[in-house]
Design brief:
- There is one protein chain.
- By secondary structure, this protein is α/β, with parallel strands linked by helices.
- The protein contains 11 helices and 10 strands.
- Helix 9 packs parallel to helix 10.
- The longest helix has 15 residues.
- The radius of gyration is 17 Å and the shape is globular.
């Protein structure tokens, strides 16, 4: 772990607050934290109902992301469209939508694909991150299928998790997802990867940075191609950059 890792993690951070009881005061605090003494984060990620408030309290250089179909990942297209419309109307720049992973597990991949295609059409010009919920998909084959459906639907990013299930981001799932991007001629130079859920230290973030560089190349280590979704990681980033934390003892395995 180095200060370089910390600075890169900061620049690629989606500073996130998705607690059910979040208020405008919570988001105002989040927006203040997003403009850290060491530089800005890439985006602030909130509920659709708070996206407009976030947009009004951030400089244009920090994107606003909001979640759709979250965290349940139901196959209800109308509900997902309502979320997406609210995000678009709020002036946000990014949509993080949950793939209907239960439908996928049940063999109903067409239902999952229909929702993703509908959301993509509903937010033209916005960055679309598709949350696969890899900890629930369990098998490499299902994760690979989720990746393909997402890429076929026009996803700009593949994202690991909602952070609301027992298993969030893992390096094993990340390798499958990054491999799917790298194997696609249409995606390998365009689509990004987002690790989300359970990443609390710069050492943990550095493992995903290294894996992304291995599979997509160093040019992918920018906010346009790599993100980390976290609420507590900023604390460790700031500790490392201030010199208060020289190194983390966290293991570099799966999280």
């Amino acid at each position: 772990m180095t200060q370089h890792d910390a600075r890169l993690a900061l620049a690629c951070l989606d500073l996130t607050s998705l607690n059910v009881a979040d208020t405008e005061a919570d988001v105002a605090d989040l927006c203040r934290r997003a403009q850290s003494p060491f530089g800005p984060v890439a985006a602030v990620c909130v509920w659709p109902r708070l996206a407009g408030f976030a947009r009004a309290h951030l400089p244009a250089s920090i994107a606003v992301a909001a979640v759709a179909n979250f965290p349940h990942g139901h196959a209800d297209i109308d509900a997902a469209m309502r979320d997406t419309a609210q995000i678009v109307q709020a002036g946000a720049q990014e949509v993080d939508v949950v793939l209907p992973y239960r439908s996928l597990i049940a063999g109903e991949e067409r239902a999952a694909a229909r929702l993703l295609v509908a959301v993509r059409k509903a937010c033209p010009g916005l960055l679309l991150k598709v949350i696969l919920e890899t900890g629930e998909l369990k098998t490499p084959a299902l994760i690979e299928l989720a990746c393909q459906l997402s890429l076929d639907s026009g996803a700009d990013f593949l994202k690991t998790s909602t952070g609301k299930t027992p298993i969030s981001a893992t390096l094993e799932a990340a390798r499958i997802m990054l491999g799917a991007i790298a194997a696609s001629p249409a995606a390998r130079q365009r689509v990004g990867f987002k690790a989300a859920g359970g990443i609390r230290t710069v050492s943990e973030a550095a493992a995903y940075l290294a894996l992304t560089q291995e599979l997509l190349g160093a040019s992918a280590l920018t906010p346009q191609r790599f993100r980390i979704g976290a609420s507590s990681l900023l604390n460790d980033i700031e500790a490392v950059l201030s010199g208060a934390a020289e190194a983390s003892t966290a293991p570099r395995g799966a999280y």
